[in-house]
Amino acid sequence: MELIEKYFPGLDDSQRERFRLLKDAYTEWNARINVISRKDIDSLYLKHVLHSLAIARVCRFDEQAEVLDVGCGGGFPSVPLAIMFPRVRFTSVDSIGKKITVLKEVCRAAGIDNIDARNARVESIAGRFDYAVSRAVTDMSTFAGWVWPKLRRGRRGDLDNGILYLKGGDLTEEMLRTRRTWHQYDISDYFDEEFFSTKKVVYIPFTE
Fold first, then answer.
1. Structural domain harbouring 31
2. Which of 5, 162, 170, 202 minimizes the number of CB atoms within 10 Å of its CB?
């Protein structure tokens, strides 16, 4: 929790409590259904929670914005973002049922009520969203192809609606293949820890 409060000192009591409860919830459920590397569970707040919250440093979502998390696994980045933005509505999708089981149980344990967790492929999800988020589930060209039909024009946060994607390394060649306008934010500009030295948030504004 000290790590989260270091970068987000304005959390209210409810947010602090929900972030605090994540450790026990993930430790318990990861022992039953392994969705986080065993060696990473002790670094939960650094490698998963704070990493997810890099998106919040790049773009604060407006109240009632609708955000789609694709390939959410056990709930990253949507669980930390849902705590940070309790009035934003998240739809978290993964094709592997046991991961959605963990996500639902973690939400129940931490009192998170603004995530709709679905065991489904993104292609089957109806409706439109303001933003799509994810953490390196595939190359960006493929990901953009999945979510582009699910986005709507507008601006429901600090940035125009679009994709916010957590990725690492040199992305230039991969991003050029998308043939879309893109912006890269180095997470090391926001967080000091060495873990973030090569990690980035990639933003693609939605244009029809």
1. 2-205
2. 170
Write down the pLDDT at residue 208.
65
Q: 156 vs 62, 78, 109, CA distance in Å? A: 5, 17, 29
d(CA 85, CA 24): 21
User: Residue 139 has what pLDDT?
Assistant: 86
Residue-wise pLDDT for 69-93, tens only, equals 999 999 999 999 999 999 999 999 9
The conformation of residue 123, written as its DSSP 8-state character, comes to G
DSSP letter (8 states) at residue 76: T
**H or E element that contains 168:** strand 162-168
Query: In sequence order, which residues have a C-beta less than 8 Å from that of residue 41 and are 6 or more positions away?
Result: 26, 27, 30
What pTM was computed for the model? 0.96
Is the pLDDT assigned to residue 170 strictly greater than 80? no
In the chain, how many domains are there?
1
Mean pLDDT calculated for residue range 112-138:
95
Rounded Cα–Cα distance for residues 68 and 191 (Å): 25
- pLDDT band of 172, cuts 50, 70, 90: confident
Calpha distance 132→147 (Å, rounded):
7
The strand pairing partners of 205, in sequence order, are 162
- Write out the two tokens for 56: 């919040």
Q: In this structure, what CATH number is given to the domain that contains residue 36?
A: 3.40.50.150
Helix pair 13-32, 97-110: axis angle to 10 deg: 140
Which pair of structure tokens corresponds to residue 42?
């002790």
